[in-house]
Design brief:
The protein has 325 residues and is of the alpha+beta class. It has helices at 8-25, 29-52, 61-89, 117-120, 207-212, 264-272, 296-299, and strands spanning 91-95, 110-114, 128-131, 154-160, 166-169, 172-175, 178-180, 189-191, 202-204, 217-223, 226-232, 282-286, 302-303, 307-316, 322-323. The strands form 4 sheets. Strands 1, 2, 3, 4, 12, 13, 14 and 15 form an 8-stranded antiparallel β-sheet that branches. Helix 2 (29-52) runs antiparallel to helix 3. The longest helix is centred in the N-terminal third of the chain and has 29 residues, at 61-89.
């Protein structure tokens, strides 16, 4: 897959269109209901006019009134069917806001999520899953509603299901004691944009560059009666600012503030502690862009009830149309 480097003006225009589509897809149900009620009132008023207009007077404004009546019908049925049946129970469109799944998913891709599949089955390892993240994953206060609940969705690949023992050893995945090369989807990248906090364009690192990276080990551990994500390198463990072997390399891991460990003795103890399995009712998620994803390695596990659906396909832009696997 190539990377499209658009001029800034084109990027802004494309971004505005994609944001508009995303806003429409996320229209609150209360707004949809208001829209349907208003259209229903308009339709009844117009229907009364159409019904009571004599045949010989059905000219002038009459054809326009009939068109508006039929259009209102279409919008009413679409609103009810799409927003009250399809979106809650079947499928929903989502906009990809970050490069954590690059190059499987690009920033500003639109994906279709299957919301019905997990009503009858559970996520499997390898599924690309849309879910509501825990509060520990959120840095932007605007992504928390007035009730203190997260109001954004994340998308990552499921790497651990209940009962799985998942570990990274210097960046290499081991699941239930067996090595998984993840060659089909795992990548390491470099951001090609000046604003690295809002990166759109990426470059795949070559094998020599990947070998030179400081790669963290990871496991779930039990600490103070809670199962937490634990990352370490030869420099530190669950540090607020992880160390690296090269200046400018970028941190080998990131952890939410809740899980930062400042006591070296505790860090040493947890490095030696046994890895914990993913507990019942929880799932472990990681991004395909392995050095550019803030995921379960940093903020922990995803409860089953927070899972929204499985990504099935990219549908916009049309040049990116494909199934997601």
């Amino acid at each position: 897959m190539g990377i499209s480097f658009l001029p800034l003006a084109q990027q802004s225009s494309a971004g505005s269109l994609q944001q508009t589509i995303d806003n429409l897809a996320r229209t609150p149900l209360s707004d949809v209901l208001k829209f349907v009620v208003v259209l229903t009132v308009i339709r009844f008023a117009i229907s009364f006019y159409l019904k009571n207009t004599p045949v010989h007077l059905r000219s002038g404004a009459y054809p326009l009134a009939r068109f508006v009546n039929e259009l209102s019908d279409a919008f009413i049925y679409a609103g009810i069917f799409v927003f009250m049946v399809i979106r809650p129970f079947a499928v929903q469109a989502f906009l990809i806001p970050s490069g954590s799944m690059w190059p499987t998913l690009y920033v500003n891709d639109f994906i279709v999520a299957n919301k019905a599949i997990y009503r009858f089955s559970d996520p499997h390892v390898g599924d690309i899953v849309v879910f509501r993240p825990p509060k520990e994953a959120i840095f932007d206060p605007s992504q928390i509603d007035a009730e203190g609940e997260v109001k954004v969705d994340f998308i990552k690949r499921c790497q651990g299901t209940p009962g799985d023992l998942v570990e990274l050893r210097d960046g290499i995945m081991y699941r239930n004691g067996k090595r998984d090369e993840e060659t089909a989807y795992k990548h390491y990248s470099e951001c090609m944009d000046q604003n690295r906090n809002n990166c759109v364009n990426f470059r795949a690192l070559n094998p020599e560059e990947i070998d030179a990276l400081t790669k963290a080990s990871f496991k779930l551990v039990k600490y103070n009666g809670e199962i937490i994500p634990f990352n370490w390198t030869k420099f530190d463990a669950n540090a607020q600012i992880p160390g690296t072997s090269r200046y400018g390399e970028g941190p080998p891991y990131g952890v939410a503030g809740k899980f930062v460990i400042t006591d070296p003795a505790v860090a040493t103890q947890l490095i030696q502690a046994p890895a914990e399995k993913v507990p019942p009712g929880y799932y472990l998620m990681m991004g395909d862009n392995r050095n550019g994803s803030f995921d379960s390695r940093g903020w922990g596990l995803v409860p089953r009830e927070a899972i929204v659906g499985r990504s099935e396909a990219i549908w916009l832009p049309l040049s990116r149309w494909r199934a997601t696997r």
